[in-house]
Write a structure and sequence with these properties.
With 479 residues, the chain is an all-alpha fold. The protein is built from 17 helices and no strands. Helix 4 packs antiparallel against helix 7 and helix 15 crosses helix 16.
Length: 479
């Protein structure tokens, strides 16, 4: 098939043909890698905790450090990609991702493990907006870009789901393989990226540089808020309030910095439209619910039910159905009903899925677990891709990195906050009772958090439904 070119707002082209498809495969490979890297830790966490003698609150940071690094530098990553070149940014941070994944596998103390996860997350924070903007600036806005984004989102969510299974298989051999396997996969993606991602066009030049102060402020805000929530059950109330208050101050400082900066991470004008604001708020709530649920579920299956890492991974395998449905079913539903209706339906399914899991007991079988994980996979396929489109649709080409970074920051901050809240609730209820019955009580209480989050998300989605009457046109295939 010959390459067809269509002009883009920023001067790019809709590169089709073999090279265009090859580039999309590489970018999907990178987001798939990031997905499995994040999710494998959930299944491997109990083994790491035992081997390195970590407390539950310390062990939680193995997951949260990655997510906070990811979300904290996503906005800066988007801006760097826009100004320094998307290909250049993508390749450099892919190398960093590879190096620190390897360091995690060699760690013998908790702090080295947590540090490696944080830096790997920072690398992902630069990779993701660079990859997303490579898609949005190489495929013209409209059906082709929408289809490419749905494929990309489906691979991303499928990577997370598959990582739960792969994490179980690798942990059965040795938990360190959940770090070494990504090193191998990263090397493969890097080789493909060097060959298939086209050279950068001359990037936008800014005399004002980068908003490093804003990046530091937003990262500090997230770290302090999450730290306060996680530590709340174990420290005096005043300490938790002070730390949390410092996080709020850092967030206010971030807003002030952005308002005054000559080159802000977030131009407030991007948020004037209601649709991107709703998409980002919905991403916070959905991400928090999903990640919190996955953490509690994997701990429940291994520590209460006594299942092996492999059994745990296989138990949640059906969640990966979203990887099949996102690029196949979801485009047809969006074409017929529009993004807003599909997102709303996805949130309703999530409410049902999490509510069904509130009845967990010490003797639950896989048959009792299956309805929740199946509905959750279906829900993710309906929510994540359309939210990605809504968050970036109508944004100027020069701000696509920013829009993609903002959306992913929202999702990752929600994930970190969700992990922190479910961990805090579980620890507060369980206390010193680490028997299966005591742990079960804590997990049951923590599972209320995802239900509340998606209920709030459903309200946000309903607001989008009321204000969006159009239907999106999506082709059945990518040329």
């Amino acid at each position: 098939m010959s390459a067809v070119q269509a002009s883009l707002p920023d001067g790019g082209t809709d590169r089709l043909g073999r090279r265009g498809r090859g580039m999309l495969i590489v970018l999907c490979g990178a987001i798939f890698l990031e997905g499995i890297d994040a999710s494998m830790m959930n299944v491997a966490l109990p083994s790491m905790q035992d081997d390195l003698d970590m407390s539950p609150s310390t062990a939680q940071w193995v997951v949260s450090a990655y997510i906070l690094g990811y979300g904290g530098f996503m906005l800066l990553g988007g801006r760097v990609a826009d100004l320094m070149g998307r290909r250049r940014t993508f390749l450099f941070w892919l190398v960093v991702f590879l190096a620190f994944s390897g360091l995690g596998g060699l760690a013998t103390t908790p702090w080295v493990l947590i540090l490696s996860r944080f830096v790997t997350g920072v690398a992902a924070g630069f990779l993701t907006p660079a990859g997303l903007s490579l898609i949005t600036t190489n495929f013209a806005e409209g059906p082709r870009r929408t289809r490419a984004l749905l494929i990309y989102a489906g691979i991303a969510s499928g990577g997370f789901s598959f990582g739960l299974v792969l994490g179980g298989l690798l942990t059965a051999a040795d938990w360190r393989w959940v770090f070494f396997a990504p090193v191998i996969l990263t090397a493969v993606v890097l080789a493909g990226a060097v060959r298939l991602i086209p050279p950068d066009r001359r990037p936008e030049r800014s005399p004002h540089g980068f908003d490093v102060a804003g990046a530091v402020a937003v990262t500090a805000a997230m770290l302090l808020v999450v730290y306060a929530v996680v530590r709340a059950p174990e420290v005096p109330v005043t300490e938790a309030v002070v730390v949390g208050g410092a996080g709020i101050v850092a967030l206010v400082a971030f807003v002030v910095i952005e308002h005054r900066s000559a080159a802000p991470l977030i131009r407030l004008g991007v948020l004037r439209s209601g649709a991107p604001v709703r998409a980002n708020l919905a991403a916070i709530l959905y991400g928090g619910a999903f990640f919190g649920f996955v953490l509690i579920t994997t701990l429940y299956l291994q520590q209460v039910r006594g299942w092996s890492p492999i059994q745990t991974g296989l138990a949640v395998l059906v969640v990966s159905i979203d990887a099949i449905l996102s690029p196949t079913l979801t485009p047809h539903l969006v074409r017929r009903f529009g993004n807003a209706r599909v997102i709303f339906g996805g949130f309703l399914l999530a409410v049902l899925a999490y509510a069904l899991f509130l009845r967990i007991d010490v003797d639950w079988t896989y048959a009792a677990i299956f309805p929740t994980v199946f509905l959750l996979g279906l829900s993710f396929s309906l929510v994540y891709g359309p939210l990605t489109i809504t968050a970036t649709d109508g944004i100027a080409g020069k701000d696509q990195g920013l829009a993609g970074g903002l959306f992913n920051t929202s999702f990752q901050f929600g994930a970190a906050l969700g992990l922190a809240v479910v961990t805090a609730v579980s620890i507060a209820v369980t206390g010193t009772d680490t028997s299966p019955a005591g742990l079960l009580a804590g997990y049951r209480a923590a599972l209320v958090v995802p239900v509340v989050a998606v209920l709030l998300g459903t309200v946000v989605a309903a607001l989008g439904l009321a204000g969006n009457g159009h239907r999106d046109e999506i082709p059945t295939r990518v040329a």
